[in-house]
Write a structure and sequence with these properties.
Elements (H helix, E strand, L loop, with lengths): L1 H45 L7 H26 L5 H34 L5 H28 L3 E8 L10 E6 L10 H12 L5 E4 L8 H8 L10 E4 L10 H10 L3 E2 L3 E7 L2 E7 L17 H5 L8 E4 L6 H6 L4 E4 L11 H4 L8 E5 L3 E5 L17 E8 L3
Parallel strand pairs: 1-12, 2-3, 3-4, 4-5, 7-8, 8-9, 9-11
Antiparallel strand pairs: 2-12, 6-7, 10-11
Helix pairs in contact: 1-2, 1-3, 2-3, 3-4
C-alpha cells in the first residue's frame, strides 16, 4: 500500500506541476496583456528608427504610460464596485482605441516596413516615419468609422431558414432576433427607441431577445430598456438571460422584462400555432447561471422541453452558441444565440472562436440542428464596431417543399 501510494503521489505531483505553471501564467495574463497593448504601439510608433525630436519622443512615451496606468484604473472604477459610468466610458474607449492601435501597429509595422524596404523607398528614418503616420491614419479612420457603426441603428439582416420538420401552416413565420443590447454607461435611450421602431416595421410573428440586455441593474438601466415594452409581435415576445445579467442582479432583469410584456423563457417553452401546425419555442438560462449562485437559475434544456411533443419542431433560445452541443443532442431544429458580437473589433473574432463554435451567421451542427448566431444589436464596452457590424435579424422560417 505504501509503494502504491507513493507512486500515485509522484504521478499527481508530475501532473500538478504543469497545471500549476499554467494557472500561474493565467494569473499574470491580466497584468501582461495591458502592458503589451500599450508598449507595442509605443515602440513601433516612437522608437524604431524614427529619430523624433526629444520633446516629441518624451511626450509621446508619456501619453502611452498614462494610458497604461489610466485605462485599468478607469475600468476598475467604472465596472467594479463603484460603477462610475463616466470612468467606464473613459476606460472602455481607451481599451477600444489601444486595441485598434495595437493591431495595426503590428500588421503595418511589419508589412509596410518590409514593403518599403524591398521597394527601396527612403532611408531607415523615412520608412519608420511613414509607418508611424500610416498606422496613426488607419487607426483614426477605423475608430471614427467604428464609433459610427456602433452607435447607429443596426441594419436588418434577412434570411430564409428551411426546417425539414416545420409544418406547411408555419411556412413564412417571421422571427425577429435582437440580442446583446448592452444598455450601459453611454445613455442609449433614443437609440433603443429607434431599434424598437425598426423591429416594429418587420411585422414579426415572434420577437426574441437572447440576453445581455444591459451592463448594470434593471433599476439603473430602466430608462434605456423601457422602449422594449413598445415592441410588437403577432404571437409572442420572448426573452432568455445572458451572462451579463448574472453580473447585475439577473432576477431584476427577468422581472422587468415580464413587466414590459415579454415572456421570460426560463427553462420552459410555449407553443406557437399557425395554420393548423405547431412550433415549440423554448428557452434556457445562460450557461453561467448556475455558477452565479442565484437560486433557481441554471441552463436546463430537459426542463425547457418537458411536456412538449417530441414530433414537433423546436426553436430554442440560448444566449451562448456553445450550448449547441446540448441542443443537437436533444434534436432541436434551430437554436438562436448571440454573445459573440461577431468579434466586435477585428481581429478579436479569432479569440472568440477559441470559446465558441460559431461567431456569426447560420451553421449546421449534427444531422438536424441549425444554429443562428447574431453579431448582436448593441455593443459591449468599447463604443466601436470594426468589420463586425451590428444587426437586427429577420429569419423567415420555411417548411420543406
Amino acid at each position: 500500500m505504501t509503494e502504491t501510494s507513493n507512486t500515485r503521489s509522484a504521478a499527481g505531483e508530475a501532473q500538478g506541476a504543469p497545471r500549476s505553471r499554467l494557472q500561474l501564467l493565467m494569473r499574470y495574463v491580466p497584468l501582461i496583456a495591458p502592458v503589451l497593448l500599450w508598449a507595442v504601439p509605443c515602440w513601433v510608433l516612437l522608437h524604431t528608427g524614427q529619430h523624433w525630436p526629444l520633446p516629441v519622443a518624451l511626450i509621446g512615451t508619456a501619453l502611452f504610460v498614462l494610458g497604461l496606468i489610466g485605462m485599468p484604473l478607469a475600468m476598475t472604477r467604472g465596472h467594479g464596485r463603484r460603477q462610475q459610468d463616466r470612468a467606464a466610458i473613459i476606460g472602455d474607449t481607451l481599451l477600444g482605441g489601444i486595441w485598434v492601435l495595437f493591431t495595426w501597429s503590428v500588421l503595418l509595422g511589419v508589412l509596410l516596413r518590409l514593403t518599403l524596404t524591398v521597394t527601396g523607398v527612403g532611408d531607415g528614418q523615412d520608412r519608420a516615419r511613414i509607418v508611424t503616420w500610416t498606422v496613426l491614419g488607419v487607426a483614426a479612420v477605423l475608430l471614427v468609422w467604428g464609433y459610427a457603426e456602433a452607435r447607429r441603428v443596426p441594419r436588418v439582416r434577412r434570411l430564409d431558414v428551411r426546417l425539414p420538420r416545420l409544418g406547411a401552416g408555419l411556412d413564412g413565420t417571421r422571427v425577429v432576433l435582437i440580442t446583446d443590447t448592452h444598455y450601459g454607461p453611454l445613455d442609449r435611450a433614443r437609440w433603443s427607441a429607434r431599434v424598437c421602431e425598426t423591429v416594429n416595421t418587420l411585422e414579426a410573428d415572434l420577437v426574441c431577445h437572447t440576453g445581455d440586455i444591459a451592463d448594470g441593474t434593471a433599476e439603473r438601466r430602466r430608462t434605456q430598456a423601457a422602449p422594449l415594452g413598445t415592441v410588437q409581435a403577432a404571437r409572442a415576445r420572448v426573452y432568455v438571460t445572458g451572462n451579463h445579467e448574472y453580473y447585475s442582479e439577473a432576477q431584476g432583469w427577468v422581472d422587468l422584462m415580464d413587466e414590459l410584456g415579454w415572456e421570460p423563457l426560463r427553462n420552459r417553452h410555449l407553443l406557437l400555432e399557425r395554420g393548423g401546425d405547431t412550433l415549440v419555442v423554448a428557452g434556457v438560462d445562460d450557461v453561467t447561471a448556475e455558477s452565479s449562485g442565484l437560486a433557481g437559475h441554471r441552463a436546463h434544456l430537459a426542463g425547457a422541453l418537458h411536456g412538449a411533443d417530441a414530433d414537433l419542431p423546436v426553436l430554442l433560445l440560448a444566449h451562448q452558441p456553445k450550448f449547441i452541443d446540448r441542443a443537437a443532442a436533444h434534436g432541436v431544429d434551430l437554436q438562436l444565440s448571440g454573445h459573440t458580437h461577431g468579434g466586435q473589433i477585428w481581429p478579436f473574432h479569432y479569440l472568440v472562436r477559441l470559446d465558441q463554435p460559431a461567431v456569426a451567421g447560420l451553421s449546421r451542427h449534427g444531422a438536424r440542428t441549425l444554429l443562428y448566431t447574431s453579431r448582436g444589436t448593441g455593443f459591449w464596452g468599447p463604443p466601436f464596431r470594426v468589420f463586425a457590424p451590428s444587426e437586427i435579424t429577420l429569419l423567415v422560417l420555411r417548411s420543406p417543399q
